[in-house]
Amino acid sequence: MINQFPVSTKKIEFFTHNGFRKILPNGCTAHQALAPVILLGQIFSIMPITGYFHSHGPLGLKFKMKSIQLIYSSLTMTSVLSIVIMFLIHSIQREKIGLNSAGTLIYYIVILTTMIEFVLLAYNWRSIMIQWTEAEAPFLYGPYATGKGVPLESLVRRVAFTVTLFAFLEDTMNFLSAYKLNKLHIKQCPHASDFWYSFYHREHPHIVRLIPYHPAVGVVIEATMRVAKFTWNYGDMFIMSVCLTLQRRLQQFNDGLERLAGTEQSQVRWRQVRLDFLRLNELIRMLDEKLSRIILMSCANDMFFISVQLYNIFDVKPTLFTTFYYWYSLLFLMGRCVLMLYITSSIYEESLKPLRLLRAIPTQNWNLDLQRLVNHVSLKNSAFSGKRFFYITRSLILAMAGTIITYELVLLDQVAKDKDNTLDCNY
Amino acid sequence: MINQFPVSTKKIEFFTHNGFRKILPNGCTAHQALAPVILLGQIFSIMPITGYFHSHGPLGLKFKMKSIQLIYSSLTMTSVLSIVIMFLIHSIQREKIGLNSAGTLIYYIVILTTMIEFVLLAYNWRSIMIQWTEAEAPFLYGPYATGKGVPLESLVRRVAFTVTLFAFLEDTMNFLSAYKLNKLHIKQCPHASDFWYSFYHREHPHIVRLIPYHPAVGVVIEATMRVAKFTWNYGDMFIMSVCLTLQRRLQQFNDGLERLAGTEQSQVRWRQVRLDFLRLNELIRMLDEKLSRIILMSCANDMFFISVQLYNIFDVKPTLFTTFYYWYSLLFLMGRCVLMLYITSSIYEESLKPLRLLRAIPTQNWNLDLQRLVNHVSLKNSAFSGKRFFYITRSLILAMAGTIITYELVLLDQVAKDKDNTLDCNY
Amino acid sequence: MINQFPVSTKKIEFFTHNGFRKILPNGCTAHQALAPVILLGQIFSIMPITGYFHSHGPLGLKFKMKSIQLIYSSLTMTSVLSIVIMFLIHSIQREKIGLNSAGTLIYYIVILTTMIEFVLLAYNWRSIMIQWTEAEAPFLYGPYATGKGVPLESLVRRVAFTVTLFAFLEDTMNFLSAYKLNKLHIKQCPHASDFWYSFYHREHPHIVRLIPYHPAVGVVIEATMRVAKFTWNYGDMFIMSVCLTLQRRLQQFNDGLERLAGTEQSQVRWRQVRLDFLRLNELIRMLDEKLSRIILMSCANDMFFISVQLYNIFDVKPTLFTTFYYWYSLLFLMGRCVLMLYITSSIYEESLKPLRLLRAIPTQNWNLDLQRLVNHVSLKNSAFSGKRFFYITRSLILAMAGTIITYELVLLDQVAKDKDNTLDCNY
Amino acid sequence: MINQFPVSTKKIEFFTHNGFRKILPNGCTAHQALAPVILLGQIFSIMPITGYFHSHGPLGLKFKMKSIQLIYSSLTMTSVLSIVIMFLIHSIQREKIGLNSAGTLIYYIVILTTMIEFVLLAYNWRSIMIQWTEAEAPFLYGPYATGKGVPLESLVRRVAFTVTLFAFLEDTMNFLSAYKLNKLHIKQCPHASDFWYSFYHREHPHIVRLIPYHPAVGVVIEATMRVAKFTWNYGDMFIMSVCLTLQRRLQQFNDGLERLAGTEQSQVRWRQVRLDFLRLNELIRMLDEKLSRIILMSCANDMFFISVQLYNIFDVKPTLFTTFYYWYSLLFLMGRCVLMLYITSSIYEESLKPLRLLRAIPTQNWNLDLQRLVNHVSLKNSAFSGKRFFYITRSLILAMAGTIITYELVLLDQVAKDKDNTLDCNY
User: Fold this and answer.
1) Which residues contact C324 (CB under 8 A, 6 or more apart)?
2) What are the boundaries of each domain within chain D?
3) D345-364 pLDDT, tens digit each
4) What is the ipTM of this complex?
């Protein structure tokens, strides 16, 4: 499926053991930039691959069937799968699937699918990274400067860790809010039951109806919940990291082209420029193919939950903290989604810039390679997509916002909302 | 209306009597691939053409006025037409056309139109297949390999039969559900009437009010119902089969181009490549013109019934089997519709691939024919369409899904739904 | 504003007195084709121009300030203006503007604006027709055959008269329905008043409140109503006629190009082909500029009234004839609107066809003029538009239908509808 | 970020002291055309820049930290900021944020952001104007005639002052309506309080709850309100002025190209034409980058308030004057918004015109520069945008109108509206 196009035959010597990092004048490789992001994921059982910090570069990557990472992944996936099954049994027993429980079900199924997708991605990661490293080779040694701004490595790290930090805050507030609501519930209801017993009966009735409550069960549930939520979060974050890395290469290309545009160059030089752009485009296409399903699920999940959260935001909440949590959660979700889309759409924006720079090249220097490059860029189809159902550009963000607003206006006052359930003493 | 473009003057020798199938190194012709699909249709009176298994290829096809196929078709069309007329009379007598009966009426009218369209298609099928066979000739003998994957013949057969199987299951469940509802009705109502008498009064009141009930009438009604439903199903399936066959040719072209891209070729060779692509495009255009109305009706019918089914899905059903049937029916309908759109949109996706492959051709080998080919592909207008009102691409699928969701949200809780009519003892 | 492009310097000799029509081998001029349509309009006071049947061709056209046509136009415009003013006074006196009266007001204002637009068009008609005749000159004498099908003259006449016939039927049924409703009203209410007195009080309360009723007033009102409705109808019909005429020229061009495509031609010949296409494009652009406002108003009016009629169609009507009238009126309106859009969009469709034909030209014959022609057609912007807010293409029809359906679903059951006012004896 | 493209090396001699204005044959510079608009803004504290009437042209512009303009700006910004904060405190104290107060909050935040954006714009204005003056240099001296129509200077002045006049009228009526409502309220309620005391308690409860009422406070509030409203208005007006100026240059280019199109020119001359177009495009791009955020906020604000006003328009108002004010306000708002979008979209329309003119150039004179120019214009991407989320073209206007209509229809009768609050004597 991947291109057998002529890649620069120059041996990729930097796959050698020592001093790898030091001799790179143009910043780190994609492999190095993404390593901390993979590490972060593995803490929560995602991306079960080994060797991503290996000094041999992508050649050190391995997907081992008996690695701790894969075992950890399998455990959490089994756990989420059990929840899905228990949820289904619970729903069929109660003989109704309301909008809310349909939402919860979709959430778990999407999480499970995302987890599986990340295992598949880990399985392909070695070959992906080898191709990526080959494709970005000219930008590491060649005349393309890394340019201004934060070094790629720390840029990716900063964005990933900031998003994670806000996500942890959201997660903590989620727990605290549930804790407070349970406290309120216990005060209002004549239960003799244990605090945590009540907590899990209120938060996860579909589980505790099937498995008798036990503190150990509570811990497993809680851990699974955290991993599930993190997986959703990680999808967005991973796409951001990949796109930031790719965008840097496009910027390097554009900066290089801008420097060349005013000068006179041989046709061979221009041909090289065209081939470098082609190489980046093939890279985008290959990554889009591999990540499309994760992008599709991230976007669908984000849109669905923004709609749901917006729909619930104007309800009166039992405690002030819960109100505050809902607003924070909504704003975090919207912020994360917009940031992800914005960064991803910048791939498209960057891939159009050469058009402008090519116009500035004097007609005396014009040649067939430049003409072919102009034709190539003019087609405007270097963008990440959700399985080609939609392309992630700036105008998509507006379209998504418009759709959500329409849905909210239509739903306003139309569907009966959930009752305050702290007063419902029958769980 | 059809192109008089220079087709390869090489005599189409494979229209000869013997050993036709064996000497084809690159798989079967479209004529052969579609023959089982036509046979399947004819069982249910659709596509009244003869000679589709004839060893002379498309030259053996005949549309005979006195064939059994056409007589069978005429009978079923008359039968559906009678139902439409009886339905209209029934509606006018009751002096109201509600949303539901409007839906039923639209269903029968679309079915009838589809049947007529297929007769017209059968009438034109000989000339269509002759052009098709000419257009695909270079892909049967020439240097274009059939490539990897399932052979075309069995691919088409598998897809068609799988869809049909699921359709039969749906049909059976439909009957069983109606049967069970009638049983429930008889138990609850003090009717002295016969089981089947009650069945047809409940299911087809517009007919049994006008024609006194008789078991023979029941059989005819039932047969017509099955044929009607199959016709709808067959529309989607036929489009899929045609598109799979076309897509294979485009894949062969792309595979061939990929093999050539890295090599040095004479301008004459590239000219041939351009003419082969042109030929495929003319074929797509011709088939689009002939099938557009069937596509338009299939899409409209699918969208309309997905909306209706979704709207009814959350209602409480009298029996569990009916609930199960509704869910299966909805999922089958959505699955079939998405599959049809996905396969059809792959024509568009495949027709864009040459762009990417052409970029890889070295500038030294560039020539006017390649430039014209790039210009041609860049226009991005090789796609199947619904009478050019819409083009079937991946983004159309998203647009249709978005439209259906909007409609459902708007209708939610807004319109009074049908009552459970098993309790209505006045039929 | 109009192009000063090099038009063929060959003297336009066919503006001569005698035998004008006979020497044209390729059918009639646009001037001749549109003359009957203008005559039809003038019966209802629209397009106040003289000399449109003059044998000198467009040079005989005149917009005279003292012609009967203009006086007639001024009278009907004054009449409609008075109705608008009386309607406004009536609304302010009753101190409310409901949705329905807003609709009526918009209707009259659009009619008045359309009338004014047609006077302006008549004022410019001479210069428009002179340009048009110059632009179409190569298609009257040159090698472009009129091709198959109905001669242009009778095609335009047939379409125009058929639409008018259906419009008259609609108008008659409208009157009869109002007549019947008034009869019912008189039977049910203890009025001592005259039949026609009651009729006008019921149909045009805003007028009869301000001007005391008198049979002469009734006649004037009735005449104005007919002219107003015809004006709306005429807008659509005029656009159709213009587009049919233009489309014929594009067809002639495409047929000519198809004949040339396979042959070898000198560059001078291809240059002429390019200039002919350019000429047709300039003509489309010029006509679009002149007719854009009429198109915009026609589309807006059609969409608005289709929505209103659809919204009212499911109400119970007091008499069966009224029910029948509403359905006929709705179907006529939808049919007319779709026909107008379909014919107009065929300009766009025809203007794309050269792309396909140009591909078939062998590369040996390729030259700069053909390349420029391909570039020109590839831009796909020869279409009629509503002031460039929208372009009339096939997909626009779908978009309009989708918008209307959404509006209807949203409005379903939402807004209180008008009561049956035959029972309201207070007028 | 800004282009280092080869600007005409000819020294920009017109930055000299004397007789600057007189020697310009082609009308005034952008700097001169916009000066009165900046002056108008400064009366209301916007665009704190000095030297915009300086005879040295843009070189005389200065952004001084200690200028009166900046101090004035800071004061009004602080004032608006206080209102935002007081509004927030007020909302939290009342423990609810309804749709209406959310609307008011959004209004003040957008105003504040717009103010800040204009300070940032003022900060960059000197460099923007220097680039602009350089880019438009060929159009001031060169062979590009200013063409017909109103001189640029007075055109900008007329549009700006007309819009301002209507805005003042709106503002005055707003005040008078509030005044009358307060009078009515005092008559109906047994308050002993002062007229103005009551006025401010009714109009700005969030302020007067926190700061005890004092006439001086009233004056400050009133002044801040006027400035806030003017800022919103000024955003639209400023965009219009900039676009009118730019559009004139594009018109000059097109007029010049039209004059050249028929003639034979050296390749050097055509190259110059291409570079002039490139220069204008770079200018559009640069201005779009600088103004994008202001455009985004203006469009969002306009759309939001048109929706809100439309939603409220059919309510019964306590006084006739208030009804009249609401209609005037709505029509003014819609008119201003459409005018702004129409003028802005004309940049896009003008930038496409060269396509048509280039087609008319004879093939004999064709050369690579013309081909590159055609390719450049064909990409159709010279348009102002809202941060590239949307591009301002004619079809955007239609899309916005369609969206607003959908929203209104959805909201119709759905949300409980505000009560007439003149009868609520508890403020």
Assistant:
1) C173
2) 12-414
3) 999 999 999 999 999 999 98
4) 0.86
